[in-house]
């Protein structure tokens, strides 16, 4: 695909932003918000709001943006098949410009992480610095040879869960309070939820993965079994969350989690029966509402996943934040 050699300044800026994939930035915010709530220590001051904005900037536009940008740099040939309209394969950005994009995002994320860590200080500061450095490192080896973790679902899904779910939750918790066992448990549940969803997100690139020799779960076992594996992980996350909530004496949150689990099971049965056209009644939410935040797809199985994701994410977000808030209230 060719484009005019000269693009205007606005078009170039747009292409650089697209390379950072803004749709993905919001994916870390629920974990960050839950981590903050579980600390029970954030105050309604300008200082604390600025800290919250800074950590979202670090993990969102910069951290997540780096992971998307560096992935495009190393996956140019695959993207020519899977996503030919992306900035580099479409010719709107050169490979060199894409590389500079990822370098600037990387250095900015490191700089902001060091600033926050030194500002907070102590063990909490170390947690923040270690979290962003490890997340950036994992993001790099996820896409870059020789490790290229994305080549196999057994390494790719945990890598995404670690960066998007686990360390983001812990660092947000450390921003305002000490890391307690409850925070580690909730961070772990966010890790497994991210793992389950990234397994299903691979539907969109199944054709390119197969041609490129990447071992996504869909390529190895097919769509229906991939749905089943992911659903088992998701249901276990809800079950553990319900048990934890009950054991802590959070009765109303426990009921909410169990309702969420039952609703999810209903949707999951529909998708297992029809991996391509199941729960079509939620398609309107993807087309007209959440589609701008979670993306759209022409791959039928991936489109079915997006429909499920709308419902699952709302259910998990509500329960995750509710229980994190209850944990935080214990330490007020």
TrEMBL record:
Keywords on record: Cell membrane, Membrane, Transmembrane, Transmembrane helix
Annotated source species: Chlorobium ferrooxidans DSM 13031
Superkingdom per UniProt: Bacteria
Protein name listed in UniProt: Bacteriochlorophyll/chlorophyll synthetase
Main location: membrane
Membrane topology of this protein: Multi-pass membrane protein
Span of the signal peptide: none
Keyword Lipid metabolism assigned: no
Annotated localization: Membrane
